[in-house]
Fold this sequence. Notes:
CATH topology: Farnesyl Diphosphate Synthase
CATH architecture: Orthogonal Bundle
Number of strands: 0
Low-confidence stretches: none
Amino acid sequence: MKAFLGIARANFLLLPVTLVAVGAAAAAYDGAFDPFNTLLALIGLTAMHVSVNSLNEYSDFRRGIDLATERTPFSGGSGTLPSGALPASAALYLGLGAALLGLVIGIYFLSQIGWKLLPIFVLGAVSVLGYSDLLARAYVGEVFAGLGLGTLPVLGTALVQGGELDPAALAASIPPFFMTLNLLLLNEFPDEVADREGGRRNLVRLLGRVGAARAYVVAAWMVPVCLVVAVAIGALPTICLLACLPSLALIAPTRWALTAPLEPVPLPALGANVIWNLATNTVLAISLVIALIV
């Protein structure tokens, strides 16, 4: 069980919980909430996250990337397959099985909501199944990560509540795009050499360490900017400005990105990047619930 949880990257599976919470809270604020569909959306999104993690472990092991990385708690793979705890085929089967579960749930929602869900469903499937061996080798892996584990889950969760996308859901779906993009981008710096030798083409390779670090800073600070703009135009209630507070955690990674991008990323900066992501989603969801109640 420990080995399977390793290739599923269980310690990162809080992200789907926070994304579903944001989507459901945004829809509830706009007047629609279905607890059963929310739970089903959470199961489906978690399954798809397990799928992309497992398939990525399989791909990176097969291509030798995970044999060359210097692992941190946030990057470099779980180390499960290189340790021999499971055969590589176990990661492949787990990834495909989880994707199948997500597919079944997606088809159910399509039958209930209709074709307006189809673009979200298709883009999400492409983001999961195409990430490791296609998207991450075409300089667009970070963008599709931001979509597949950021914007699309928030929109999809909101849509399955009542079949409509209202302003709060649309506005709430934008910050998660930048946060998940950055969650992946910062974790790519420790794996730079192994990724290059394994054929990965990501933003660190495209822009260089200095350019990619600057891109990280821009994307990071787009999150509070988007929240402020959304409140200013009335798409989100004023209390959602509280979701800007977790951006204080960006001090450590921003300092590194602006002053020492050629040096290894400090572990506290990698940890702060994860905390910022999860905390911002959580505070945004709670703020929307408070606005609904008050």
